[in-house]
Amino acid sequence: MKTAQEIVKESDVIIITAGAGMGVDSGLPDFRGNEGMWKAYPLLGKKRISFKKIANPNAFKYKPELAWGFYGHRYDLYKNTKPHIGFNALLELVKTKEDYFVVTSNVDGHFQKAGFDDKKIYEIHGRIRVFQCTVCNNIWIPSPDLKFDVNPETLEIKTEIPRCSSCGEIARPNIMMFNDYSFNSSINYQQKKRYDSFMRKYYNSDTKIAILEFGAGTALPTIRIMGEEMQEKISNATLIRINPREAKGPKGTISIAKGALEAIFEDIFYNDIKV
């Protein structure tokens, strides 16, 4: 069996799929279950508020100060955190190929921040940098100067709660949450259209495709399932699964039990790519 590096070097097209583990090397939490979330946000742990409860439209209805304390802290964290150098390495890699696409469940916008083409990214769970109204479904990009002041004792927002730029009702991030029937999917719809168009080009082709999956776990397995389906449907596609704990995959998968940054430079990159 060929090595991951050989597969990547010989490929014509790269598909990058990424879960929360991709951001760990940048210093971002990965929320591995409630224990992982409570480690990052111990005040929620003290109150026994699960990720499913806080990442829920009802939180903005019944506890908007706490909901925006949680998401406001994450908004500032993602905005102020620099993507690790592995993002730059992958960007230089895809520039050497015929085409590429990125599919991610992360809402941090770090692929765009690292320089990837926004038109070649499908954010399946939405994005924190865009807001939507909880009532009228308006959607907008907040001021780049926006930052949140969160009470460290309560995790509640101390600054004014963001409100709709149209009707004045409480805003929320444009992120697909649990039990979410009001998510504004207009951006996702356009992203998915471009992704589907990209994929259709390769279903019946001989193009060599390397699928690089980073940090996608089994708790929310959507990214893993998408990568496995790509490998199954495209004859010359190989799934390279990079995950320090859950690297195994179906037949034909190359499994690398490492973190994203380590694997990029030890197992994926080859010498004639410069970062």
TrEMBL record:
Zn(2+) binds at C133, C136, C164, C167. Keywords: Metal-binding, NAD, Transferase, Zinc. SUPFAM superfamilies: DHS-like NAD/FAD-binding domain. Gene3D superfamilies: SIR2/SIRT2 'Small Domain, TPP-binding domain. GO terms for molecular function: histone deacetylase activity, NAD-dependent; metal ion binding; NAD+ binding. InterPro entries: DHS-like_NAD/FAD-binding_dom, NAD-dep_sirtuin_deacylases, Sirtuin, Sirtuin_cat_small_dom_sf, Ssirtuin_cat_dom. Residues 1-275 form the Deacetylase sirtuin-type domain. The active site is at H125 (proton acceptor). This is protein acetyllysine N-acetyltransferase.
